[in-house]
Amino acid sequence: MRIWDIEPKYLCSKHLLGEHRELHAIWSILTKNKKGYSRHPETLRWKGKLRALYLRHEKLVKEMIRRGYTHTSNLDKKLAKGKAKQDEFVNTIKEQIEILKKKGCECIKRIKNYENI
Q1: Backbone angles phi and psi of 52, in degrees to 5
Q2: What is the pLDDT of residues 52-111, one digit of tens each?
Q3: In whole angstroms, what is the distance from residue 5 CA to residue 107 CA?
Q4: In degrees rounded to 5, what are phi and psi of residue 86?
Q5: How far apart are CA 55 and CA 61, in angstroms?
Q6: Which is it for the CA torsion 110, 59, 15, 91, positive or negative?
Q7: Residue 27 and residue 46: Cα distance in Å, rounded?
């Protein structure tokens, strides 16, 4: 389970769509008080930051649509409370970039020019 902290345009389609799916899982856990994965570090870092999670979702959706995907799974904006910015990380952005590079996917080409390297 992972929500990346780099701009969605740098993610390959596999990671973009995977993150979108996992974001919905975390949203559901946090908004419906579900138990599964509720103690996972990735879930815990979004507790009290549903607004930030909502904004991340909007970025993912924008990139998905730019790539030609259809999006129909909107989040309830009324539930987007708390901090608007994520300031907690399981891995630093630099570490996330290294993780993606090692995966051998299209992210390697996309992050080659990432401005924070």
Answers
A1: -65, -40
A2: 999 999 999 999 999 999 999 999 999 999 999 999 999 999 999 999 989 989 988 888
A3: 14
A4: -80, 125
A5: 10
A6: positive
A7: 9
